[in-house]
Design brief:
By secondary structure, this protein is of the alpha/beta class. The protein is built from 16 helices and 14 strands. Helix 1 packs across helix 16, helix 4 (137-143) packs across helix 5 (148-163) and helix 8 packs across helix 14 (338-350). It is globular.
């Protein structure tokens, strides 16, 4: 008896437009969220002979449905009509995905996230399945102001997880949260690794002026208002620049302008949304990252800074406490506490290593192993074998 490859079908919002060498019709797609962790895992699994991987992507932006193969992985791009996916409670997705899976006949379905109904759809398909939590939507709805769509997907997440059996999460915080809320679940912790390029950053930190860096959407939930207020209070004590990378909410940005001085505004440089290579380039010269988020499961931006060897000053929330170690590679402070944020930034700027843009070498080695693509790939491979 021969061992045939394990056929895995991902149902996900996979960032197909961020891949190189894709078919010509796809090269003009708008670049949406890069979901770098899925691309990292793809790179680890695509050459495994024991796996036959299919990736199903639903998007209204596709000109038409099509399939193609790349590095042994088959991509199935499914065009959907706009405005019907969430209102149908993702039954439209279910129907479209079932048609493709009837041909694939997967051994296992891997549902990426609950944000766009993947976990709910997987529960309807009749195949063994694994759910990977990306953003912990139930928790987000509990602690922060959310719009109607996020409130809907938070409710659907709870419904989906009552039906699931095996779930992977990134952080020890999410492990505890799900075990408390859904005691029937088998929950496995599998960190989503940053791209290898961040492990290979050649550091040349700028220290005069101090080069602070923030990566993420400029929003209330990411604590952008706390960041600006903290630095506004420190502008007389410290010589610094602030580099902001990520999507800009213009109305929120406008409201921030009314809360801080024009002098601070002159020290802020907006870079917009960058590729991983461009972010790595910015991390090479950053003195430290500041990340005063109010709610985050396990932010990729912080992990990228950690493996690049950039000191981090961040909220002690979600999975951040798993890889930002007090006094070794950064400082932590209670979420939403402006005074504590200011104190942590000042302490980091006095620290003999952090002030020079450096971290403890032993901690850097440990965190690069903990957040390695190899570890992520092996963990998911073991989970696939467990469920099949």
């Amino acid at each position: 008896m021969t061992n045939r490859p394990l056929t895995i079908a991902w149902i996900s919002f996979f960032p197909i437009e961020w891949l190189p060498d894709i078919p010509e019709p796809l090269r003009k797609l708008p670049r949406l969220h890069p979901a770098t962790w899925q691309r990292v895992l793809l790179a680890e699994l695509e050459n495994k002979r024991s796996i036959r991987l299919h990736i199903l992507v639903l998007r209204k932006q596709f000109e038409r449905s099509l399939s193609f193969e790349r590095n042994g992985v088959t991509f199935h791009l499914i065009k959907t009509p706009g405005g019907l996916r969430a209102p149908s409670l993702f039954w439209l997705d279910t129907i479209l995905i079932k048609r493709v899976l009837a041909k694939i006949k997967p051994d296992l379905v891997h549902a990426w996230g609950t944000e766009q109904g993947a976990a709910l759809v997987a529960s309807r398909l009749g195949h063994p399945y694994l759910v990977t939590i990306q953003g912990l939507m139930s928790w987000l709805a509990e602690v922060g102001p959310v719009n109607h769509y996020l409130r809907l997907v938070a409710w659907l997440e709870k419904w989906s997880l009552t039906r699931a059996s095996v779930v992977t999460v990134e952080s020890s915080f999410a492990m505890r949260y799900l075990k408390r809320k859904f005691p029937h679940l088998e929950v496995r912790q599998t960190e989503h690794a940053p791209d290898r390029i961040f492990h290979q950053v050649q550091r040349r930190p700028q220290i005069n002026p101090v080069r602070f860096m923030f990566v993420g959407s400029l929003s209330y939930l990411k604590g952008a208002d706390l960041l600006f207020k903290a630095l506004d209070q420190l502008k007389g004590e410290l010589s610094f620049q602030l580099i902001v990378i990520g999507k800009i909410n213009e109305s929120f940005l406008g409201s921030l302008k009314n809360t801080v001085s024009s002098e601070l505004w002159q020290r802020i440089h907006f870079r917009g949304s960058l590729t991983s290579e461009e972010v790595a380039g910015e991390l090479a010269t950053a003195t430290m990252m500041i990340y005063p988020t109010r709610v985050d499961n396990s932010p990729n931006a912080v992990k990228e800074a950690v493996v690049a060897g950039v000191p981090v000053v961040a909220s002690a929330i979600g999975g951040i406490t798993d890889y930002v170690i007090l006094g070794e590679n950064g400082y932590l402070f209670p979420s939403e506490n402006l005074d504590a944020c200011i104190s942590a930034i000042k302490a980091a700027c006095r620290h003999p290593l952090f002030s020079q843009g450096l971290v403890e070498e032993a901690t850097l080695v440990k965190m690069r192993d903990y957040l390695s693509p190899e570890r992520m790939g092996q963990s998911f491979f073991e989970t696939y074998q467990l469920i099949k």
